[in-house]
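Reply to dn_fold:

You asked what the input looked like. This is it:
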Amino acid sequence: MVTLAASTRHGQRRRTRRPVGTSAGRPGIAWALPATAFFVLFAIVPLILVAVLSFASWNGLGAPTFNGLDNWNKIFDDPVMIKSLWLSVLLTALGVVVQTPLSILLGVWAAGSERNRAVLSAVFFVPLLLSATAVSILWRSLLDPNFGVPSQMQWLFGDGNLFGSQAGAIGVLVFVSAWQYTPLHTLIYQGATRAIPEVLYQAAAIDGAGRVRQFFNVTLPQLRNAIITSMILMIVGGLTTFDTVLILTQGGPGTDTTISAYYMYDKAFKGFDYGAGAAVALLLVVVATVISLVVVRVSGFDRMAGTQEGVS
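and this is what came back:
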């Protein structure tokens, strides 16, 4: 029996022995090595190479030659570049203003348990499954001024050429982006709404609050962290969007929709000035990072006490 007890205690010690390099309840650093290596190889290293190239002159052939700040002086002396920055900020701001209320309302509605909501939500999420290229080609055909919808509804669209003016072209870009990406943010709000404790709604109902008051006094405050997350995704996505502009407007009319990402493409791949294109790309990374950090800091998102909606 003594031998059996000693063997049992020895087996328990073997079963409770933690792997080397782990702490109580947490995996070791080795678990993070594959993701870290992937991030360094495909994010950090290319970013460093772009930063180096932004201080060099290269047309795609031969070896790059160091030219100091020539690329930076060149892009900041170009009025099209300054205009492209303002257009990028404008389109991003319009995307946030349009998509945020839509996605919040649809996400809260889709969080319901009725069967018809599940079916309609599945249909509504279909644009999220399509690539930006396919969506842009689809809407370019539908909005074509010669044989598209506007040509058949001139009483609403005037001459039908929505791409012929800056306001029309920007409106199309905002609409198409909202049509494709609102389902993504709706999904965020749907999950966040379902994580709100039901007891909060029960307490509000006891106090006499109806659905509208519950939405503004319970749901919206509890969605605060989800709203900040969604806004950061919108800001980064809006500042770096490219394919939609390339297919729908190609920066036109003139340069009225030439955002910074398209300006980078125009410099690097059409003008074969990869140094200037790299400078624009690095500038976009810095601007998107700074804006995201400011949003996180101002909103207090970095000091949130819980990781689940409804938990303080």
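The longest strand covers residues 56-57.
Hope that clears it up.
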